[in-house]
Amino acid sequence: MCCDCLKEYDPEPVSDEQMAEAIAAIEEVYAQEGGGTGGGLHVVLDDWNIEDEHVDWCLNWIQTDGFYGEDDAWRAVDLRCAKIIRKLTEGQRASVMRKFEGCQ
After folding, report:
1. What gap in Å lies between CA 104 and CA 100, rounded to an integer?
2. Which of 26, 65, 68, 21 is nearest to 44 (CA)?
3. What SS3 state is found at 10?
4. Which residues contact 87 (CB under 8 A, 6 or more apart)?
5. 6, 94 Cβ separation under 8 angstroms
6. Which of 20, 31, 62, 99 could be stapled to 40 by a disulfide with Cβ–Cβ 3.0 to 4.6 Å?
7. Angle CA(49)–CA(75)–CA(41) in degrees, nearest 5?
8. Residue 73 burial (10 A CB sphere; 0-12, 13-18, 19+)
9. For position 36, what pLDDT does the model report?
10. Radius of gyration of the chain (CA)
11. What value does the mean pLDDT take over residues 53-61?
């Protein structure tokens, strides 16, 4: 997703702790084998659909879909990240994504 596309979202302040936790969780998703496209959070992390309904859809999908096969560790990483992101407001998610992508 392009940095210009994030301009439609109003960024909101995120504490240093929340920012660090979210960035670390996103990095962990991408570091997994098969996680190069955002894994089970693709629509949120790669496509930047950061609205609640998209994060909720990913949370449900991660917990119920067979996408992960027997790889419970991969599922756990994606689930942890989804839960961290879900605790943030949409504006905070925009701030996190801007920082993660290096947008100004």
Report:
1. 11
2. 26
3. coil
4. 18
5. yes
6. 62
7. 10
8. exposed
9. 76
10. 13
11. 95
What is the rounded CA–CA span in Å between residue 101 and residue 56? Answer: 22
How far is residue 57's CA from residue 46's CA, in Å, rounded to a whole number? 15
CB atoms within 10 A of CB 52: 11
Other beta carbons less than 10 A from residue 27's beta carbon? 12
Place of tokens 């942890």: 80
Per-residue pLDDT band at 89 (split at 50, 70, 90): very high
Q: Which two tokens stand for residue 85?
A: 């992101």
Predicted local confidence at residue 50, as pLDDT:
93
8 membership: H or E segment, kind and range: none
Secondary structure (DSSP) of 11-76: -----HHHHHHHHHHHHHHHHSTT-TT-GGGHHHHTT---SHHHHHHHHHHHHH-GGGTT-HHHHH
